[in-house]
Amino acid sequence: MHKTGSLTLDLRLTLASILALCSLVPQTAAERGANGRGREEQIMRNAKAAEVLKYMNPTADPCNNFYDFACGNWSQYQPELREGDAPISVQTQLLQRAQKDVQMLLEGGVRSKGRPNLDERKVKEFYKSCLTVERFSTLQQAFLMNFIKEYHGLPLLAGTNWNMNYDWVQVIARLRLNYGFDFLIGMEVENNGKAVIQLTEPTTSLIPRHLCSAGAIVEAKDREEVTAQLQTDIAKDLQTWFGLREEETERVGGDIIRFEFELCRYMREEESLPPSEDENTEPQVYEGHDLTRLSKQFGHIINFRKYLETSLNSTVANTEIVMKSQRYFQQLAHIARSNPRPTLTNYIMYRALSEINLPRNETSNPRAGYCAQLVMRYFPKVIGEMYKNRYQRSEIRSNVEQLFADIKETFGDSLNVNDLSNNAQNALRNKLLAYETLIFPTYKGMNLRDLPLEHTNFWHKQDIAMKFKGYKERQRFYGGDAELDDSIVQAYDVHMKLLDNGIMTGWGLLQPPFYDYNYANSLKYALLGPLIARELAGALIPDAQQTELTRDESILEIFNNVTECYRMQYSNYLYNIPNVFYNATKLRELMTDSAGLNVAFQGYLRWLSSMDPINRPQLLRETLPGVDFTNTQLFFIVFAQSRCHAKYMEEPPPTFLPLDTHTEELFNVNGVLANNVEFAREFGCALGTDMNPDDKCTLF
Ligand SMILES: *[C@@H]1O[C@H](CO)[C@@H](O)[C@H](O)[C@H]1NC(C)=O
Ligand SMILES: *[C@@H]1O[C@H](CO)[C@@H](O)[C@H](O)[C@H]1NC(C)=O
Ligand SMILES: *[C@@H]1O[C@H](CO)[C@@H](O)[C@H](O)[C@H]1NC(C)=O
Ligand SMILES: *[C@@H]1O[C@H](CO)[C@@H](O)[C@H](O)[C@H]1NC(C)=O
Ligand SMILES: *[C@@H]1O[C@H](CO)[C@@H](O)[C@H](O)[C@H]1NC(C)=O
To answer: What is the CATH number of the domain that holds 182?
Structure first.
């Protein structure tokens, strides 16, 4: 067993030896705890200790594969996965838990603290009607047929008035106006006094994201498998929705998928291709009154004025328009011209219909969970407020705010690294100051009073709800409704997000196994610390938009070098070739993740050093009963265990092909830890072992 190796910090040596001594004494008076809180804490500590131990695989070598050491037995305690099941992780479990909690709130099983108001009643009624709606009924049929007619028909279905003059730009613009759908054309709107519209690739696709990109290294076999499966799914949907025959739907399914694959070829370039010097990829800016020039660039296939004015229900003459993805739009114009009109129609209408209809398989996606998701999607604020009233606690709030302050301060100190000039350090420190505090969602009250959700069937209710969401999103363009932005993260969310003046966190995240008020600081720093520090790191790493930071050349050069370091490391890890991995989003994530862990650990050491070594009960709490690791080792184990995962595999990859066992999920633990200098010291890993490589990449 690897135990604490040579410690360079005197302070930690003292603490660690005190802790090591204390851990030999099974229970002290302080631990037995006389009052209720003490007992509660004791129960929690025992449970957490048992949990930590049962997920570990003590036979694994922590210097060879720490993931296996910390998470080796995790999947044995999860439901068995079958083919087609989604992978599970601690994160997805937390998400499911939050969703279950929302379900309970909606079912009235748990009374929310505030008095039930009109909004809450309306939303609960929506949920109830979703639970009980029949899957196939004449009501549904009638609704779908009307919907299709309203959006100019579907060639497959006689009597829906489809004709050869079908104007696809008009249809997607109206779908955007009414429902906020971003089929074929993506759009982001900002309004800080003057509206700026960015034309982008759509954010969603039928084909999974990793296969839908310009550089997707997709083996023909993979692609065929995915295509075949999606084609069958689409065909089945069309058969069940409209009672169509298999032959015609199979063909349509194939057309739809082929069409999207064509679109994918120019999507997500920055996530899959080397950075381009080509000026064609630079965003171009147009004035709203000059849209003809823009349309002309794309051979007049896409009428941008019509698209924007229809989808925003407003003139855009005085708006600035930024074209973000030239090449995607060129491809869109190209395939819109070369594909038969029915294919375009089928693609657009299939995507719209699959947003409206109930999920294909209710065994794998039970109704109650689906309905809770719908309610969260359409009425995030009402649900968020209910969740907040039920789960917020002031003592937790101040506890986590303190943690945030500590991490931020540690971060400021840790900027004293690399070859950052003093100027650069000051610039980054100043930037850090802007993030004042941890922010919790607040709700000023939504008003659904005028939303006629009662006295109608589910399909109409849902239509009203979808339109309401589309309307809310559109407010961003008009610059009104500041309320729209005050909860980007909802109370039930299980993540944090960086805002202009702080980091917003959902209450859903502040639940076990990520957080418990009674957790020791070794656990709190290991679990929430990296999440906070990661967001802050994200704020400091320049991207194309952060011009004031990138003006300092020394910062830019260091960031570019470190990015390159991660790119080579990760490329080698996955493919054993240094130059094939280009996903810029992922590289940023690796950098911020790594910085997050480093800063969180420093923050923990800093807290330890502020403790009086005489305060033994307090320090004793930093380990777990019966867990034979020091508090600092526990930090890394618990960090790793917050990233355990499991996914279905027909058979485990053979160990004699090490590359086959190298996965993204594994790297998210092993790679991040291997770049941390203290980790190797804590577990006594010799230089050159897998977990202590000599070519580490570090930023902060
Ligand atoms: C952990 O996994 C190993 C190997 O699969 C097994 O032998 C051992 O019993 C497991 N330990 C626990 C505590 O589940
Ligand atoms: C790039 O990385 C991000 C973050 O991990 C991921 O969500 C995305 O799917 C990746 N893109 C592609 C095209 O694989
Ligand atoms: C579009 O604007 C007109 C005039 O302002 C308004 O009457 C109409 O309701 C709006 N349509 C939508 C869908 O918001
Ligand atoms: C639905 O999902 C379940 C569980 O994943 C599976 O056993 C079943 O075959 C699926 N049914 C259909 C119709 O796809
Ligand atoms: C960045 O990398 C280049 C080329 O490897 C090297 O010459 C330069 O010194 C590095 N800069 C910094 C600040 O590390």
So the answer is: 1.10.1380.10
